[in-house]
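User: Show me an example of a complex going from sequences to structure tokens.

Assistant: Sure. Here are the input components:
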Amino acid sequence: MQRILITGSNRGIGLELVRRYLRREDTLIFATCRNPQAAAPLQALAAQHPHRLLILRLEVTDAGQIVEAVTAVRIKVDGLDLLINNAGTYAGRVGDADPQVTQFGALEVGPMLDMLRVNTVAPLMMAQAFADLLRRGHNPRLVNVSSDAGSLTMWDGGAYTYPASKTALNMFTRCLAHDLRADGITVISLHPGFIQTDMGGPRATLTLDEAIPGVIRVIDNLAPGDSGQFLNWDGSRVPW
Amino acid sequence: MQRILITGSNRGIGLELARQYAARGAQVFATCRDPQSADQLHALAQAHADRVHLVALDTGHPESIAEAASTIHAQTDGLDVLINNAAINPRDDRLRAFGQLEPDPILDVLRVNSIGPVLVTQAFADLLRRGNSARVVNISSGAGSLEQQANGCGYTYHASKAALNMFTRCLAGTLQADGIITIVLNPGWVKTDMGGPNATLEAEQSIRGILDVIDRLTIDDNGAFCQWDGKRLPW
């Protein structure tokens, strides 16, 4: 039985990951999102798989809710095998985001910090809070969903805060990989592809059906030597 | 006469930058959070009364940036070099020790080290556009190189500099159309309050190298991660 926790699982990449992991018979999934009441597709899945899918309320920037989520998971399992830090924000859709975080001349510290809080700091806090459960997991993995927008090498005109939030997340992945290596926890940053979701918008190049099986294959194939790396959904490395 | 704006110039690298630019005849807007207590900067300003101006600027606060911008707009119609040097690296386990990390202290560092330089550049962009071959230099650190952190890192300071590197890439893209060259620069491990006594470089040597790097910048360097001795660093 693989025990998996996925944040931001009410839609987009998170929801598709839940769906696909549920197709395996031997998984127990903790699917978190800010507002479970409003997450109809997730609720429908939970109704079909009441013993293998648990929905937890979790605003990842809320330290108290993280503690509650840890407690809720501990009631069910004594270890966690996979934590996917997927929750993230673009403050709008790619190509049509809030100018306060994307546009030179309109940048503002408050909205920029809000984005860093969600995309960069929250995954670190999740890793810290679930580290004990991961240490007791089987072949434990920690996957930070990043983006090639955060690649300094590949930069091609990206829009300030979102790319910077992912670059900083990648640095946390580096730090975590080192600190958790002795516990046997493999930590990576993963670029899931530019996918047609609410965030990616219609100009995105991939469908969920194309990209998410690749994401799952990459996670399945992770070896300890991959820890600290930035991997693409097709298994290749993304340059820093 | 070159017109230079330096943040965090009350001590360390910023102070030495102000000294060396003043010594070669530049007009220096030397900013820091609290000019009142910046004794060495006052001495420098006294020695170059007509060319070194002390201005209060707390890069973590937009109101302070706006006030400094209005003060400096009244004194010059252009800027040739902006050096975003101000940064913090508090010795606090809530920033660097896994198990004790806390969001708010982490975000305070990101506010100053990563976002501050972007907001300062934004506030002075019009003066830079009217400068002569204007340059924006964001002081980063080898700690911000992802490539170089295979053996562990201290979380917040490292991430703040990695984020600054990405913001610099973005600024370089935005400002290129105005003929402004933007880089991130690693000053080396310098003997300052932040660098500590074990550091390998004297401030005088590092800053002499930095001025030389800035003088020689070309459009090919735009958006690059440079080092005080002219070398490039990997991302």
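The lines above are the inputs; the final block is the predicted structure for all two components together. Residues 150 and 163 of chain A are 4 Å apart (CA to CA).
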